[in-house]
Amino acid sequence: MLIFLIVKDIARWFFWFPFRWILGVLPFPLAYTFGSWLGYGFYFVARNRRKKTELELRTLTFAKSLDKRTIRSIVRQAMVNLVLNHIDILLYQKLAKIPVERYTEIQGLTELQTALNANTGVILAHPHFGNAQMLMAALGYRNYKINQIGRALPEFQQDVLDADDPLELPPLTPMLKQILELIHQLELSLPAKFIYIHKTLLPAFRCLKRNEVLAIAIDGLGGENRVVADIEGRQLSLSSGPVAIALRSGAPILPTFILRSTQKERHKIIIEPPIALQRTGDETMDLTINTKKIADRIGFYLVNEPSQIVRLFGNEPPYFIKQ
């Protein structure tokens, strides 16, 4: 076990440090071509991950009718996309020097602008599809004021330390800790303000009062109040936070999805029309009903873009509630 961790840390060190500098000097498209090759290598080498991914995919209702070749294709692309997400992170600091239109396109920008015209701020509730952090680059570099709710690094590291199940989070070795700190610094280079959930959420309400954009990962691990939704024969635990903030602030919620294009360095951001918030007078029921409306949209993209949910398959911790 110790030797395995040492070898894994060496591989991590090479990817996040020397390889980062190599990528930085490559032309942008070539960096992603190289990343795709690494992704295919990851698919063939990471046998256990590949098996876990296939098993997880086969539990979903829509996948039961898929043949082996299609299953393998989805799994392979999901694992390639996972590696490409890491390539994105390594290049975050380079994005500021490249026109944002080269690597992102936005569908539904009029929906966002219409919502902002109401002067109540906007909540973008997004799952972890594609590289969800590219939402910050896509909007921030287009001069939208965007705020992202997330967890602070020390809190995440504590989660790693508290995980006893080997199928949950990996052991926090000194090298992994150093890498997490590097990733955190690279994320801070994105054009957005971070609001950390272990502190007060007053900044979230204040940014909405300033008519800014508040992005929340609805399938993130943070938040105590959860809603369990049935999606394709499995149960997904979602945060009711976006709905709770919307009901209190009056800001609309727009389901948002980030998908990686077949042109690997490009990302498509889909901003959907706002959900019609239902108010019954029962707070618990309101949170459940409205959160499940967003869950329905997640289900739609899960069926149509399964390889985009890189957190779904063979992940630590698992995406769906364990059966």
CATH topology: Glycerol-3-phosphate (1)-acyltransferase
Helicity, as a percent range: 40-55%
Number of strands: 9
> Which range does the strand content fall in?
5-15%
Supply Rg.
19 Å
Largest sheet: spatial strand order: 1-9-8-2-5-3-4
How does this model look, in words?
By secondary structure, the chain is of the alpha/beta class. It has a single domain (2-308), classed as Glycerol-3-phosphate (1)-acyltransferase. It has helices spanning 2-16, 18-25, 28-45, 47-58, 68-90, 92-95, 109-117, 134-140, 153-162, 174-188, 202-209, 241-249, 283-304, and strands spanning 104-107, 122-126, 146-150, 193-196, 213-217, 226-231, 234-239, 253-260, 267-271. The longest helix is centred in the first third of the chain and has 23 residues, at 68-90.
Short description:
This protein is an alpha/beta fold.
Core attributes:
single chain; 323 residues; alpha/beta; Glycerol-3-phosphate (1)-acyltransferase; seven-stranded mixed sheet; globular
